[in-house]
Amino acid sequence: MDQPSPTIIESVKQSSKRAPMGGLRILIENTAGMGTAVGARLEEVGRFLAGCANLPVGACLDTAHLFAAGYDIKTEAGLASTIGRLTGPIGLENVR
C-alpha cells in the first residue's frame, strides 16, 4: 500500500474529537502485514503519523510484527538497520 487509507486517518481524527485526550497519546502500532492488513512497513506507519500530525500521536512497534513483516531484527546489524530506518518516516523520538 503506497498511501495509508484516508478513511483510517479520518477515523482516528474523528474518534479523538469525541474523547478527552488530557495527557493521553494515540499510538499507531505496526502490523505483521498479513492479508489486507495495513501498517506493516515503517514508511506506512510514518505516513499515518504524518496524516494525524495535529493530534498527540506516536508509534508503538511490535517486534513480532516487525519480524513477521520481513525486518531483520534478530541480528545486531539487522536491528541497527531497522532502527536506522525509523529516523526518516517515524522519527525515533515518536516511538513509545
Number of strand segments: 2
Distance, first to last CA: 24 Å
Shape, principal axes of CA atoms:
globular
The whole-number mean of residue pLDDT values reads: 89
How do the helices and strands line up, and which of them pair or pack?
Elements (H helix, E strand, L loop, with lengths): L5 H12 L8 E4 L12 H10 L5 E4 L2 H6 L7 H11 L10
Characterization of this structure:
- Strand 1, helix 2 (42-51) and strand 2 (57-60) form a beta-alpha-beta unit.
- This protein has a two-stranded parallel sheet with strand order 1-2.
- Helix content is 41%, strand content 8%.
- It contains four helices and two strands; from the N terminus they run αβαβαα.
- The relative contact order is 0.19.
- The mean pLDDT is 89.
- By secondary structure, it is mainly alpha-helical.
Name a few traits of the molecule:
two-stranded parallel sheet, 8% strand, 4 helices, mainly alpha, 96 residues, single chain
Describe what is shown at a glance:
By secondary structure, the protein is mainly α.
